[in-house]
Amino acid sequence: MPVGYVLRRVGVFFLVIWVAATINFAIPRLSPADPIKEALLKVTSMGASQAGMEELTKTFAVRFGLDQPVWKQYLNYLVDLAQGNLGFSISFFPARVGDMILVALPWTIVLVGMATLITFAIGTVLGAVMAWPRVPSVVRVLGPPLLTLSAIPYYLLGLILIYVFAFLLKMFPLGGGYSVGQTADWSSEFLIDAGKHAILPALSIVLADLGGWALGMRGMMVTVQGEDFMTLAEAKGLNPSRIFTRYGMRNAILPQITSLALSIGRVVSGAILVEVVFSYPGVGNLLYQAIRIFDYFVIYGVAFMVIVAIGLATLILDLLLPALDPRINY
Question: Does domain 102-174+201-294 have CATH number 1.10.3720.10?
Answer without folding.
Answer: yes
